Amino acid sequence: MAGRVGNFGLHVGEHQLCLAYQEQQGRVTTLAQPALMALLAQEALSESRFADEGVRYKGQRLLIGEMARQAQEWPAVRQALASCGRLDVHLALAEFALGQILHEALGPALEPAQLCVYSISAPPISPQNGQQHAFHSTILADLIRKLGYLPYPLEEGKALVVATAGNSETSTLALSFGEREINGCLSYQGIVGIDFSMDLGGDAVDQQVANALGLELAQARAIRENCRSIQVPQRREEEALAVFSHQLLGEVLARFKAFLIERGAPLFGGPIDLVWGGSWRTPDDFGLLLRREMEQAEIPIPLGQVLQTMSRETLVARGCLQVAQTLAEDRHLVAGINLR
Question: Cα 105 from chain centroid?
């Protein structure tokens, strides 16, 4: 992390960590890296190039991040990742692993009152199982604080709005698609009006594609990540992706429409532009599919254009960084954070 200055924006998803920071030259840099773990007995790695890698956890070897991803070629690691690879399960182990990953990604704070704004889930609009992001609000803040930073939580949908249209008069519906959860924010001319989350995510689509085609989950993810057009599939595998993505969006929009009707749809003086991002990577025309599905579902808000953005998987982290930089300009706000 040589050359970085100032504050951080952080988004920890189920399978990866995204980070945004400013370099000494003033350029904002974003990165995405695996947030995975594999806990193995020492003998499982004895003949691999990872025999001396990783860290110890209660007498066993723990591979984390990029190392865990690269080691998936070994059967013992694949099995471990299948049982405890994500960071939203096995809370005590996840806390330890996430602490190691954050230490590698951020490093210790270089100066007092250095902020790390991190994304959290918004209140749910439907029943949730309580397992997603279990470590975010408390454990993640503690881990950030242990590195010397001032932690500050920001709802994921709000971060997406800030990163794309937060400083303009644009009215936006922002949706952040994760592997197991979707966060959203409806803003009017940059002012947040509705913030929400759902216990739906892209993992369900990947699993359905894998089941339908008789593939491993990693192969189904590769089909999605390499697909160039979800609206014009080029082969049978991509057709399966389109079918199950359509089903996911149907459920998402049905819940969102019911939520708006129940609380009373807000009145807007102009069209609402649509932007999407998140760690569940999708083809560039996914937004057009989403807008078409919203029209067919008759969502009670006036729809505008689809905002095309680059590096959508790191947009939440970039929005968190922008909020961190805004907060840092007000010393009284920073002092208030320090007292938390």
Answer: 16
Inter-helix orientation angle 236-263/286-297, to 10°? 50
- Retrieve residue 219's tokens: 């192969």
For 127, 128, 183, 304, 312, the CA distances from 194, given in Å and listed in that order, are 18, 19, 11, 18, 21
pLDDT at residue 218, as a whole number: 82
For the segment 38-64, the average pLDDT, to the nearest whole number, is 86
Q: And the tokens for 25?
A: 């030259």
How far is the C-alpha of 136 from the C-alpha of 277, rounded, in Å? 20
Domains of the chain: 1-32+113-340 (3.30.420.40)
Q: pLDDT (tens digit, 9 = 90+) per residue, 193-223?
A: 788 999 888 889 999 999 999 998 888 989 9
> To 10 degrees, what angle do helices 315-328 and 331-338 make?
110
Residue type, 255: R
Tell me the per-residue pLDDT of 73-130, one tens digit each, with 9 for 90 and over.
888 888 888 777 777 778 888 899 999 999 999 999 988 889 999 999 998 886 655 4
Q: Give the pLDDT of residue 340.
A: 46
- Rounded Cα distance, 179 and 278, in Å: 9
Q: Are 147 and 102 in contact (CB under 8 A)?
A: yes
